[in-house]
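Quick entry, no commentary yet.
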Amino acid sequence: MFFSDFTGCEKKAIHSFVGAFFYVWLFLWVSPVSAIETCTLKGASEMVVWDAIADGDSLRLKDGRKIRFPSINTPEVAHDNKPAEPYGDQASLALKKLLSGTKKIRIQVVGKDHHGRVLAHPFLMDGRSIESLLIEQGLAYQLFSEEPDIYRACLKQQEAKARKGKTGVWSDNPVLDIRANRLKPGFNLLRGKIVQVASPKKSDFLWVEMDGPVVIRIPKSAVQGEWLKKLAGQHVELRGWLVDRKDKSKGGRRYKRWMIGVYSRDGIFVELP
């Protein structure tokens, strides 16, 4: 299953991969910063020619395929009469700079998203991970899918380094308190307290009620329910694409207004008391 970003425009859905995902994100503090290196290509890859850059995390190949980077999300550039998000243009320019002087890159295809785009890890011809380089510059957030990701640990280290250094998107704390009444559809980093966890027998998902207008949905196959239930009463940080369900509350049925999907325990950050 892959992500979906739920915002409606082309960049928005990777639904099945991270799909969108419920995220409570397990933060990784890295040891010496100097020991962190850019992630590099592992295993077989395909050499391709890129044609155009859509934004910081997607591009089009000469053969017509549209590529979406599966392990990162960069802030939006201006589209559909919406202004660019902070660091959206910088992320797009950073990708253009990385690819300047070469039309060839290497990719590792891992699937497709709901828009039909190919999900593929991109690499420079010398093997350096483009996803890693963008995270390193503080211009991308790491995503955690339900699928195995051999670059996950390395990218975690890169993000922890950028976050610790308050680089780019981390220069102004991007994490919203779910009770702050500033929620909006699209990709968000949220913080809140888990109230309770439900595990309906006829559902493939665990439902996590937060102490605000947010409920988290996570596949039972991705996280052990008993582990998740032990987090009740604790504050967690999560990330993903928020879906506004205000229309679902009509007709007498009562739902938390916002739903966010998380697809991996790796996306769970349990805050220390």
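second:
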Amino acid sequence: MAIDRISSSIASGIDSSSAPRTTAVDFGSALERVVAAVDGSAGEANQAIGRMVDGTGDVHEAMIALQRADTLLQLTVQIRNKLVQAYQDVMRMPV
């Protein structure tokens, strides 16, 4: 199912293991992968809607793709909000 593909693409940017990593992951590239996953999810949702309109796709498939894209977008917005808040907190620190 397509849900496994998205969860694996996000999980590739985030490692939940407590073992130290031997290779450093650039924050920018990890963020780029998350944004690419969100963009890909939106594209899949658009394709699912197109198939539904053509009559070749299923309504359930389109709704699941839409919900997945919406959830990923909300997650990305929350990450952005936290990053902006952290930046503002650092900039307010007295020197």
